[in-house]
Amino acid sequence: MSLNLSEMKSLCVLRLSAIGDVCHAVAMVQAIQRQYPHLAITWVIGKVEYQLLKHLPGIEFVVFDKSKGWRSYGELRRAFTRRKFDVLLHMQVALRATIASLMIPARIRIGFDRARAKEGQFLVTNEHIEAQASPHVLDGFMAFARKIGVQDTTPRWNIPVPETDTEFAKAQIPDDSKALIICPAASKAERNWMADRYAAIADYAADKGFKVYLCGGPSALEKQLSGDIISHSQTGIVNLVGQTSLTQLLALLKQAALVIAPDTGPAHMAVTQGTPVIGLYAHSNPGRTGPYLCRDWVVSVYDEVIREQNPDGDIPWGKRAKGGELMSRIEVDSVMRQIDRITVVHGN
Predict the structure, then answer these.
(1) 171, part of any domain
(2) DSSP 3-state assignment of 19?
(3) 0.85 exceeded by the pTM?
(4) Exposed (0-12), middle (13-18) or buried (19+): which is 171, by Cβ within 10 Å?
(5) What is the DSSP letter of 277?
(6) CA separation for the pair 238, 254 (Å, rounded)
(7) What is the pLDDT of residues 82-113, one digit of tens each?
(8) Mean pLDDT, to the nearest integer, of 166-195?
(9) pLDDT, tens only, 311-341
(10) What angle do CA 93, 277, 236 make, to 5 degrees?
């Protein structure tokens, strides 16, 4: 790298989406801030993701609104007129991110290693992180921090929320309560567990003394799933699906004693708040995308499914399993056992 790191004054982070990934990226950015407290950091981020992270201290955000189509690139170019960064961390392998990076002037342009720098990323970068055989996404991101000299890459998070959102969360879940939050819906329906099984877990948790809440976004899919869970349950579930902003949801996750979720953003949001998470995985490798600090609590059928679908044994680390019914292979008893384990460990 031709740049003297001690002379680095400005840094741009390009990571547009998604919620879980930007949660991982926060840990990396804040590791950089600890090493270089006077470094000016700009983050190019997606519109939805910005709503979660907009209160981060010491960060200038530039919002990339992909819904605007090609106009979004023009807006990005204008945002960086007469500016040039010392370093760009190009942390998203996607064609739209590759095109967006061309609007960001920077001397040093760091991307993934050759094997991972797909979608044209290798063509628009001039430095690269070290190759990693089987990293979690967060560990892959931390390699960017190490590339610019960060020594302590232990993940830590500080994502501020407005006081009004904290008050909202505490009104729903008081400090002295024992709450289980189920965030049942992922971005794709095939990654969702069955409503009757979520309901069975809600009933089991209620018998263990938990107050059960459902949280999630306002989509029709999420509202339908939450309604189905409630209709199958015998306990009084509090349904907050579609009723919270992202920062309100973050505050709620902090108040919870336990979170259960499939492969979806709120699982990673909960990790940033130090809340135990039971992740439910069938389609993606939890070693790569599981809730980072809670991978021991994951209930996964991924390994057996991916071996069945690739009997020759040649399975790339990030390969997804295919099939619309894979989540049905996760048994209720397996999730109950994890609840019991966490109850013992955390004294809930």
Answers:
(1) yes
(2) helix
(3) yes
(4) exposed
(5) E
(6) 17
(7) 999 999 999 999 999 999 999 999 999 999 99
(8) 96
(9) 987 899 989 999 999 999 999 999 999 999 9
(10) 125
Separation of alpha carbons 88 and 144, rounded Å: 10
Q: What are the tens digits of pLDDT across the range 21-50?
A: 999 999 999 999 999 999 999 999 999 999
* Residue at 8: amino acid letter: M
- Distances, alpha carbon 48 to alpha carbons 53, 67, 265, 295, in Å: 9, 11, 12, 26
Asked if 325 and 290 count as a contact pair (C-beta separation under 8 A), the reply is no
**Tokens read off for 20:** 């879980």
Token representation of residue 9: 């004054």
- Asked whether residue 15 is assigned to any structural domain, the reply reads yes
Q: What is the CATH number of the domain that holds 9?
A: 3.40.50.2000
114 vs 121: CA distance, rounded Å: 9
Closest by CA to 16, choosing from 73, 57, 80, is: 73
Question: 35: alpha, beta or left, given left = phi > 0 and alpha = psi -120 to 50?
Answer: alpha
What pLDDT does residue 2 have?
A: 67
Q: Which of 87, 114, 147 is the last residue of a domain?
A: 147
Residue given tokens 């990571």 in the structure block = 15
What letters, b where the CB count within 10 A reaches 16 and e where it falls short, cover 127-158? bbbeebeebbbbbbbbbbbebbebeebebebe
